[in-house]
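Take a specimen:
=====
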Amino acid sequence: MAKFVHELISDERWTQKQMLEGTHVRAFMLQIDNLAQAELFAVRPDPPDFVVKKGVSQLAIEHTRIFVQSPSGVRTMRGEEEERDRLVKLASQKYDGLGGIPVSVAFQWHTNHRLNRKNFARDAGRIVRIVRGTVPTDGTSVCATIRCLQLPSFDRPRGVVEIFVDRFKSQTSSSWAAQGGGWHTPLLWEHTQAAISAKNKRRSVYAAKWPQAWLLIVIEYDKPSSFLSLNDDVCGKEYESAFDRTYIWRDVDRQCLRLKTRRRGDRIRGRS
């Protein structure tokens, strides 16, 4: 059987799926000191999903999302969640109305901080100014965190702690997410190991081409079923992984967790 000839694809040729996943990977890379200035490429054909290049070094990265079925029954929004959602929708509409270029925006809020709807127009305008001031006018890529408490009080949208702004230079549509605070479901060891095991099967396919590979498990902010909280059951136990490093990336708050792992056949260390 003929071997695949892998091609590294730069972001101006990425699909929508690769652009979304690449947003997660790039934000994660900024948390890893020696990867902050590295180049990111998609791979055709995959696996792997991405390759990071820095000088002559290359690192394969597998991207996967993790979902857990929400408890049965429909849970209505709490008051502060509904307020946040309305404020962000208003800001998004104002941004689009001003001809803002496509961008992905997410928020971190003061815990259980109720918003005053009388201030929505003012605070939506402040959010729009912050986002427009962050996105380069030439439309190039950006991955930025704006800490609102560091802004002057007259520029600070009430109740917002941080605003996360991401953009690819080839991005064609915007995504604004309020990420309400009440959807959290504990992430269990079984959920996490199942996600790792599904990706383990791909590792041997490209192990010769890319001897070093990491797995990135993403908890997205824009789907209620994936508002998962990290707890001792996830953080303290060990997993069977075919990857050199395995991380969980919680996109809602840029939380990064490296998991304890072992290769198949290795002695289990400390799993209860």
